[in-house]
């Protein structure tokens, strides 16, 4: 008996590259299954953005939820806030539900890594999942992604309008300090919700922070916040100064790329 044809699955993160890839693949792979790994801690506007994408695609974006949410695993891990070296959140809330959804059938998993970026993506170790990179294969770069989103009417993810550079959980530890302050400006209630996790954990008394080296309470103190904002503005001005030497696509990349962040280390399933 011949092997069954593979399923085609594309994971949306709420970010621009996976959104553009979904639009790009709509006509090419009509049988595509679109999924969103929902941690339950996403930015409110991400859901509205997914609805816009879904309307354009004309088919549902399937929401995948873990059996147990963030707070359950936070307790299991003894109140340990996730970090780059303790990335249990991605594993338990994104990867496991995705792999459960995939099952054991052969699957082509479409990933929105672009032709103009070096980072490597999360690739499932499950042998039945084969990653596919259409933007890389077709040479599509950042400017192409922006054009696809603009021409479709879907547009860029809303969080880019207020300075955030990543999709994913509102409290994602990959945020720069200036992004934490922007979160506080835009969603003060979510900033407060993130602070709750920095309290001493009952029983052990362990304290972890989201942002390296300081708590959110320390970060929001007026003098400290002003210094972080000044530094962010200085960096932005420096980038503007070098604009004359850059191509348009590079200028755009600078505008949306975090200036001091290690993209390779980030979770592609959360942010692409
Ligand atoms: S977005 Fe950030 S906090 Fe959320 S699952 Fe991904 S790495 Fe973890």
TrEMBL record:
<protein>
    <submittedName>
        <fullName>3'-phosphoadenosine 5'-phosphosulfate sulfotransferase (PAPS reductase)/FAD synthetase</fullName>
    </submittedName>
</protein>
<dbReference type="InterPro" id="IPR002500">
    <property type="entry name" value="PAPS_reduct_dom"/>
</dbReference>
<feature type="domain" description="Phosphoadenosine phosphosulphate reductase">
    <location>
        <begin position="8"/>
        <end position="120"/>
    </location>
</feature>
<dbReference type="GO" id="GO:0003824">
    <property type="term" value="F:catalytic activity"/>
</dbReference>
<dbReference type="InterPro" id="IPR014729">
    <property type="entry name" value="Rossmann-like_a/b/a_fold"/>
</dbReference>
<dbReference type="InterPro" id="IPR050128">
    <property type="entry name" value="Sulfate_adenylyltrnsfr_sub2"/>
</dbReference>
<dbReference type="Pfam" id="PF01507">
    <property type="entry name" value="PAPS_reduct"/>
</dbReference>
């Amino acid at each position: 008996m011949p092997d069954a044809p593979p399923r085609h699955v594309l994971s949306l993160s709420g970010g621009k590259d996976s959104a553009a890839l979904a639009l790009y693949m709509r006509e090419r792979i009509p049988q595509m299954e679109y999924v969103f790994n929902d941690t339950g801690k996403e930015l409110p506007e991400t859901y509205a953005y997914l609805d816009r994408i879904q309307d354009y695609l004309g088919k549902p974006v399937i929401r995948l939820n873990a059996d147990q949410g963030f707070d359950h695993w936070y307790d299991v891990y003894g109140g340990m806030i996730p970090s780059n070296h303790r990335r249990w959140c991605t594993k338990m809330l994104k990867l496991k539900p995705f792999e459960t959804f995939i099952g054991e059938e052969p699957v082509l998993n479409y990933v929105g890594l672009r032709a103009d970026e070096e980072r490597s993506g999360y690739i499932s170790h499950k042998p039945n999942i084969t990653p596919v990179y259409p933007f890389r294969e077709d040479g599509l770069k950042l400017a192409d992604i922006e054009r696809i989103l603009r021409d479709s009417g879907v547009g860029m993810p809303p969080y880019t309008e207020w300075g955030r550079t990543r999709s994913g959980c509102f409290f994602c530890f990959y945020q720069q300090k200036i992004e934490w302050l922007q979160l506080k400006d835009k969603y003060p209630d979510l900033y407060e919700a993130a602070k709750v996790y920095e309290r001493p954990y009952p029983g052990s008394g362990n304290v972890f922070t989201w942002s390296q080296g300081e708590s959110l309470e320390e970060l929001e103190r007026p003098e400290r916040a002003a210094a972080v904002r000044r530094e962010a503005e200085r960096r932005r001005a420096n980038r503007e100064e070098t604009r004359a030497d850059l191509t348009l696509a590079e200028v755009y990349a600078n505008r949306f790329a975090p200036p001091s962040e290690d993209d390779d280390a980030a979770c592609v399933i959360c942010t692409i």
